[in-house]
């Protein structure tokens, strides 16, 4: 019994020390954008599976649900009338029309996560990214993912087997316009190899978390260090 109590006390002290070392920070919005098929969805999934401090911003959309998609996990599927009401009431951080369908990011869950020190991952296009920058610039870090070639991009789109040949053609035609916005992003990754691209995303996230202005508890931490000198 005595040994168990001693082990428990040590565990509590170790936990207390970890809490003391942790510096409070505000979360950030990590944006991944790319032409359809360039790999941002795969990169997003890898990051979410590996880092539990990151949560996905679940967008609302008016497009039909695809096979395998779940309401509330992939998107919140709503009617156009409801989408319009949310936009008019200022409940969306950003919104866009893509291929005749509307997409948007609900404001409330994002602000709640950031205040709690959690990071929010966005899988959105350049239009949505511009709107985020206009509204919450200091909280945003943006990454644009490029394919290694147009041939590779088309191959990936056809391999997905989710869209018709007509839709694939439309996506390829739109890719040039989407890629023209690469210079508006903080970081650019060429997705030649998914493992390398993922490592680069992780490195960017680590650096952004350490930015001085995001570490809200840093001032108190430094003052405490100075007081003990």
Structure description:
With 229 residues, this protein is α/β, with parallel strands linked by helices. It has a single domain, classed as P-loop containing nucleotide triphosphate hydrolases (Rossmann fold, 3-Layer(aba) Sandwich), CATH 3.40.50. It has 9 helices and 9 strands. Strands 2-7-1-8-9 form a 5-stranded parallel β-sheet, sandwiched between helices. A 4-stranded mixed β-sheet has the order 4-3-6-5. Helix 2 packs across helix 8. The longest helix has 20 residues. The chain is globular. The chain starts with a helix and ends with a helix. The mean pLDDT is 87.
Question: Can you tell me the CATH class?
Answer: Alpha Beta
Computed structural class: alpha/beta
Average the pLDDT over all residues and give the rounded result. 87
Largest beta sheet: what is the strand line-up? 2-7-1-8-9
Compute the CA-based radius of gyration. Answer: 21 Å
Contiguous low-pLDDT stretches (5 residues minimum) are none
- List SSEs in N-to-C order: HEHEEEHEEHEHEHHEHH
- Write down the overall geometry: globular
Q: What fold name stands as the CATH topology?
A: Rossmann fold
Total number of strands:
9
Task: Please state the second-level CATH architecture.
Answer: 3-Layer(aba) Sandwich
Helix content: 40-55%
Strand content: 15-25%
How far apart lie the N and C ends? 41 Å
CATH homologous superfamily - what is it?
P-loop containing nucleotide triphosphate hydrolases
Largest sheet, strands/sense/barrel: 5 strands, parallel
When the domains are counted, the total is 1
Work out the helix count: 9
């Amino acid at each position: 019994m005595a040994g168990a109590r001693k082990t428990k006390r040590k565990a509590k002290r170790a936990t207390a020390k970890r809490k003391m070392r942790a510096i409070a920070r505000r979360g950030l919005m990590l944006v991944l954008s790319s032409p359809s098929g360039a790999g941002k969805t795969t990169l997003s999934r890898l990051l979410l599976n590996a880092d539990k401090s990151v949560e996905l911003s679940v967008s609302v959309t008016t497009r039909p649900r695809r096979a395998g998609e779940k309401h509330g996990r992939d998107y919140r599927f709503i009617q156009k009338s409801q989408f319009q009401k949310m936009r008019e009431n200022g409940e969306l951080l950003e919104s866009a029309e893509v291929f005749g369908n509307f997409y948007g990011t609900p404001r409330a869950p994002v602000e709640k996560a950031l205040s709690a020190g959690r990071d929010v991952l966005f899988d959105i296009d350049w239009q949505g990214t511009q709107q985020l920058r206009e509204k919450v610039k200091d909280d945003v870090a943006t990454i644009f993912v490029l394919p290694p070639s147009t041939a590779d991009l088309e191959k990936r789109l056809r391999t997905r087997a989710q869209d018709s040949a007509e839709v694939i053609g439309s996506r390829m035609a739109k890719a040039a316009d989407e890629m023209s916005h690469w210079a508006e992003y903080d970081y650019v990754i060429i997705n030649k190899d998914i493992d390398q691209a993922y490592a680069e995303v992780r490195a960017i996230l680590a650096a952004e978390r350490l930015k001085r202005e995001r570490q809200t508890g840093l001032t108190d931490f430094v003052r405490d260090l100075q007081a003990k000198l």
